[in-house]
Amino acid sequence: MKKLAYIVLLVVIAGVSAGQEVQVERWDVFELALPGPTEGNPFIGIEFSAVFRQGARTFEPHGFYDGDGTFRIRFMPDREGVWTYETRSNRAALSGKQGRFICAAPSPGNHGPVRVRNQYHFAYEDGAPFYPFGTTIYEWPFQSDERRQRTIETLKGCPFNKARFLVVPPWRQSYVEGPGALDRCPFFGTSKENWDFSRFDPEYFRRLEICVEQLRDLGIEADMILFRPYDHGKWGFDTMDAATNERFVRYVVARFAAYRNVWWSLANENSFIRHLTDEDWDHLFQVVQEADPHQHLRSIHNAGRIYDHRQPWVTHVSLQYYMAVRALGVSPLLRDIYRKPIVHDEINYEGTITKRWGQLTGEEMVYRFWSAIIGGAYATHGETRLQPDGDGWISRGGTLQGQSPARIAFLREIVEAGPAGGLKPIDQYYENNMAGELGRYYLIYFGKDAPTQWAFKLPDSELETGMRFRADIIDTWHMTVSPVECMFEVEPLDRYSYIDKDRATVGLPGRPYMALRIRRVE
Amino acid sequence: MKKLAYIVLLVVIAGVSAGQEVQVERWDVFELALPGPTEGNPFIGIEFSAVFRQGARTFEPHGFYDGDGTFRIRFMPDREGVWTYETRSNRAALSGKQGRFICAAPSPGNHGPVRVRNQYHFAYEDGAPFYPFGTTIYEWPFQSDERRQRTIETLKGCPFNKARFLVVPPWRQSYVEGPGALDRCPFFGTSKENWDFSRFDPEYFRRLEICVEQLRDLGIEADMILFRPYDHGKWGFDTMDAATNERFVRYVVARFAAYRNVWWSLANENSFIRHLTDEDWDHLFQVVQEADPHQHLRSIHNAGRIYDHRQPWVTHVSLQYYMAVRALGVSPLLRDIYRKPIVHDEINYEGTITKRWGQLTGEEMVYRFWSAIIGGAYATHGETRLQPDGDGWISRGGTLQGQSPARIAFLREIVEAGPAGGLKPIDQYYENNMAGELGRYYLIYFGKDAPTQWAFKLPDSELETGMRFRADIIDTWHMTVSPVECMFEVEPLDRYSYIDKDRATVGLPGRPYMALRIRRVE
Q1: Does B443 lie in the same domain as B316?
Q2: Which of A483, B7, B71, B121 could form a disulfide linkage to B36, CB 3.0–4.6 angstroms apart?
Q3: Residue A206 and residue A240 in one domain
Q4: Residues B300, B381: one domain?
């Protein structure tokens, strides 16, 4: 096996007698490395954590064995100023080590981890809104250097600020292609016959760390999928026993939780992992919740049996249910059922492969994104078009060829220029194509209808006679925003609606995929 | 106040020395009446129950005070043969009374209470399928004798086998109209100023019992709504305190749980009862669950805040969310989220009133019923057309004038002639208009589309080359079933579908609201 190149993180062998103060910026990774025992199996039976303290606040991340006699603990300080720490362990060499460091101001572009905000939406911890526009690149960390670099270059020019990928790749007949491609697995061993599930391969995880860092540096959240069902009886990483699963989760959380851009996706298509019940997933969620001092977002992505996203350890709904974006009006229902952010994390993929889940036109992909957004929810992109070196973007990353990313970028601009608190369905019981902020901002999406005009009419909530509005006609496919010249002034029509006092209408081009943006003039 | 006429139930003053054996048919009401203490307030502080026993099975229904010094206990025996009982009480007069009775075979038409069956469906306790086709007559028990009788006559000619109605009517300026109309309230008193919430008015509840019996005798389930928010600050039955609410629930359960046709609907539009939280509803559900020895179906009907129907004490989802029936494909999602039967208990009403919830055309009402059914769910009808003596069917019952009931009857016939286990969505991720039983029966609904032909093509699950099918063209509006002459024989088309080996198509009339029924020929 080749030795993977990897970037050495800020490594601090800290102690009470250390000289110059170590500095880490807020929400960045502080790492402590200590030499520790190597006899026996250092992955098993060694308890190792550290209590990080600033005033009355403490956090206790778990450490992990990184091979070659080195144990590490990572911590993401969330307040500026002095932090102290002291290690705990059942081994003397790892116990009672004390130190301190200074947490400095975050650099520009570092907004901290993403949290749920305003019940159905997200924001970075510094308060900046975060509207997820995700994409799917399941196996990109395991590709050749060249293809990984190409993925990064593609992402630089994309609207996507969240990437879903697998922590363990699916089984493939011949996985390794080209220099730098994956040549090892999460566990020591070479095949199903000889995995040592009690020993992790640190080099494997260092590769993933580089990928998480690369995404972080692009401002992209890393939606890391811990389990997946795709081994077809070969590797067997989808049939591991409960103890191995839990140890795996703890190891991944110990290594990655200090990265501010991490989201935990417990699984992709979880119910296809037949031997795991909902109660098993409950337990694994709770392991993550307990082990992650930074409380990154947690969800799970379903196959036929939908896990109960209302469980308290689930922060948002990560759903695969195509009908829920094919019809307008379903996302508001999901919000009302779950009372959490809804992220349609699989809505089929743009492409032309023979599998029906990868046959969307660009128009349909964009329609489904708008359907999610207009329902007060979010969606995740993927593309299956084959690339010259095999497979599509959703599998191995590389280059995007589809028509949807540019339109998704256009939609993201509209959303980011909209109400900071996110879009809320307007009157979800009767109107299925309207979201915004009552009385101030309305985004109306006509989807596959092709109206030639729209009579100015809005649901009555928060409206008063005399309020004035301006409108923009938005062509969601051709990516144009055309202001309507006239100003609108409203008066009540009936018990439910306000209309323009002069019964004004807005002319529309009779094409599908049009939208209107109505904004109050103060 | 007038004294209400009421039917005296089978009343048994039973004792160990009784002569001839009392007989009650299976799933009918056995009632024990005992004289008890009248000093103070007999509604408060008197514990009274009876243990009914047959072999190793025991049930302990609570009794209730019925006024005039009489205490009653009701019990619905669910097995034929000898039952014995012994009362328990903290008052000597009501304690230790023993007796027995014979439970005889049920008479024709008595199938017992309705239970959840096959996860998403219902059946009577004797195993006969029950497909709910509900209607809404919120205030019918409180109308004049004449109007109540008219309601009963109407129901005799209707497809409806479940009726939703309120246990407490909404406040109205002038409630009483005509002989026999409601002239009393659940509690003693005459107005908000002087309700005695510690004393129930037995005559009030006797009226409701008559109504439940009348429905039972028509084979109609009584979906009894315990709480509702409609007092507008007047009567105050929607602002009662927790202790009163609980006492009210216990009293209603004690009186009604022995009726086999009862369903418990904890509330209509529960979140409009502003002072009750979800936790309050949790508690009230648990009170019902604990107090009802017969475990009738339990659900709750929402306003804006949807109660969590996944709670274990909820037997089925009773939903008000119009979008969920306006678009095909939503009910399968709800099934997959809740894993319980889905009953769309309010889908707007047929009529032409100015309130937007009562403006459906007959076509739209029928469409929404089909939408529910084709999604493996059920729906509930209502009609708002005004009648000569005021208000519509949904409020006061009376006569139906709409176009939908005949079509709903037609749909019910189709469902009842279909798979006994109920309709299951076929391939809910990609097909939104198909339900049935894989490999045997397919009901395909074209809704508002108006195709002129349908190429014979079915999702592949459970199909094999050479299987043969017959088709019927169903006009859901004109209520016709037209068999297609030819027989179809299938072969695989691709990885997802089977088609007719001769590429046969079925001609369709190019009208909306058409359906196809495809049945396997053995």
Answers
A1: no
A2: B71
A3: yes
A4: yes
CB atoms within 10 A of CB B297: 23
Question: How far is it, in rounded angstroms, from Cα B214 to Cα B114?
Answer: 17
Stretch B262-270: mean pLDDT? 98
Nearest CA in chain A to B433: A323
Q: Rounded distance, CA A338 to CA A321, Å?
A: 15
Contact between B354 and A428 using a beta-carbon 8 Å cutoff: no
Q: What's the CA gap between A312 and B76, in Å, rounded?
A: 40
What is the tens place of the pLDDT at every residue in A290-322?
999 999 999 999 999 999 999 999 999 999 999
CB contact under 8 A, B323 and A330: yes
% of chain B surpassing 90 pLDDT: 91
CB contact under 8 A, A429 and B324: no
Question: Is A398 in the same domain as A484?
Answer: no
Task: Give B-chain residues touching A329 at CB under 8 angstroms.
Answer: 323, 326-327
Beta-ladder partners of A196? A188
* Interface residues on B facing A, Cβ-Cβ cutoff 8 A: 304-306, 308, 310, 321-324, 326-330, 332-333, 336-337, 354-356, 428-430, 432, 494-496
B323:A332 CB<8 A: yes
The number of helices, as runs of H, and strands, as runs of E, in chain A is: 9, 32
The answer to whether residue A424 is domain-embedded is: no
Rounded to a whole number of angstroms, the distance from the CA of B396 to the nearest CA of chain A is 24
pLDDT computed for residue B176 by the predictor:
53
Split at pLDDT 50, 70, 90, the class of B2 is: very low
Q: Which domain holds residue A136?
A: 114-317+391-416
The pair of three-digit structure tokens given for residue A222, joined into one six-digit string: 């890393």
* Residue after which a domain boundary falls, among A382, A416, A450: A416
Domain count along chain B: 3
| Average pLDDT score over residue span B315-321 | 98
Is the residue at B262 inside a domain? yes
A86 shares its domain with A218: no
Q: Do A336 and B428 touch (CB under 8 A)?
A: no
- What's the whole-model pTM score? 0.94
CATH number at residue B27: 2.60.40.10
What mean pLDDT comes out for the span B114-130?
Answer: 98
Mean per-residue pLDDT, B243-258: 98
User: What CATH number should be reported for the domain holding residue A516?
Assistant: 2.60.40.3950
A193 and A252 share one domain: yes
Point out the residue among A321, A328, A494 whose CB comes nearest to the CB of B333: A321
Mean pLDDT of the region A370-386: 97
User: Does B228 fall in a domain?
Assistant: yes
Q: How confident is the model at residue A177 (pLDDT cuts 50, 70, 90)?
A: low
Of B69, B85, B104, the position where a domain reaches its end is: B104
What's the Rg (C-alpha) of chain A? 25
How far is residue B287 CA from its own chain's centroid?
A: 20
- From A326, which residue of chain B is nearest by alpha-carbon distance? B329
CA atoms within 13 A on the CB side of B460: 9
- B331 and B355 belong to one structural domain: yes
Residue B395 and residue B451 in one domain: no
What are the DSSP calls for B263-318, one per residue? EEEEESSGGGSTT--HHHHHHHHHHHHHH-TT---EE-B-SSSPP-TTSTT--SEE
Asked if residue B340 has pLDDT above 50, the reply is yes
A to B CB pairs, distance under 8 Å = 64
> What is the rounded distance in angstroms from the CA atom of residue A270 to the CA atom of residue A85?
38
Kind and range of the H or E element at A251?
helix A242-256
Residues of chain B with pLDDT > 70: what percent? 95
Q: Quick check: B323 and A428 CB within 8 A? A: yes
Both tokens assigned to A210: 């580089």
> Which residues on A lie below 8 Å from B364 (Cβ)?
none
Q: What are A149-158's pLDDT values in tens digits?
A: 999 999 999 9
The four Cα atoms A87, A88, A92, A97 give a dihedral, to 10 degrees, of 20
What is the maximum span of chain A, computed from C-alpha positions, in angstroms? 85
